[in-house]
Amino acid sequence: MADNCFCCSGQSYEHCCKPYHMGTHHAPTPEALMRSRYSAYCLQNWPYILNTYAEKTRSTLTEAMLAEHADEQTWLHLTIHARDGLGPEQVDFSAYYAISKQCYVLHETSDFIKENGCWRYVTGLLHQDTGKLSTGRNDPCFCNSGKKYKQCCLKRL
């Protein structure tokens, strides 16, 4: 596993999302929870993802439902957007992923609540730019690495 955490925080997985996944710590903020959920999707850690839903939603889901199309997806990059205009319980992000070598973006503003002292995901509002990406091989990579797409995220597919 790479040293850097899947959530693109710039920290090591060991010091970023792993303590939340292992249950030794709880995410202290909605952003930390959202990042840890993204990392959990990368790792296909369905028990963690299920546990981080708000109780009302969690009761309608199963790990099998969460995993249903997971083998088709490769998670590539997470971008957290500026907090301008957001409430303290909201996080605006874009998660980039691929299915069959076609890239997509999920741009969402997520809402979180605290239940029993822990942050939980409630729901999210999808933005209009969610969907298939038209990234050319020579375009700058969406992960902001400064490299061309063909020399960066395309290599991971």
Description:
Strands 1, 2, 3, 4 and 5 form a five-stranded antiparallel β-sheet that branches. The chain has about 160 residues and is of the alpha+beta class. The chain has five helices and five strands, in the order αααααβββββ. It is about 20% helix and about 25% strand. It has helices spanning about 20, 30-45, 45-50, 55-60, 65; strands spanning about 75-80, 90-100, 100-115, 120-125, 130.
Give a short summary of the structure:
The chain is an alpha+beta fold.
The count of β-strands is: 5
The main pleated sheet reads as: 5 strands, antiparallel
Tally of separate helices = 5
- Which segments are poorly predicted (pLDDT under 50) over 5 or more consecutive residues? none
Oligomer: single chain
Strand content: 25-35%
Radius of gyration: 16 Å
How far do the termini sit from each other? 16 Å
Shape: globular
Structural class: alpha+beta
H/E element string? HHHHHEEEEE
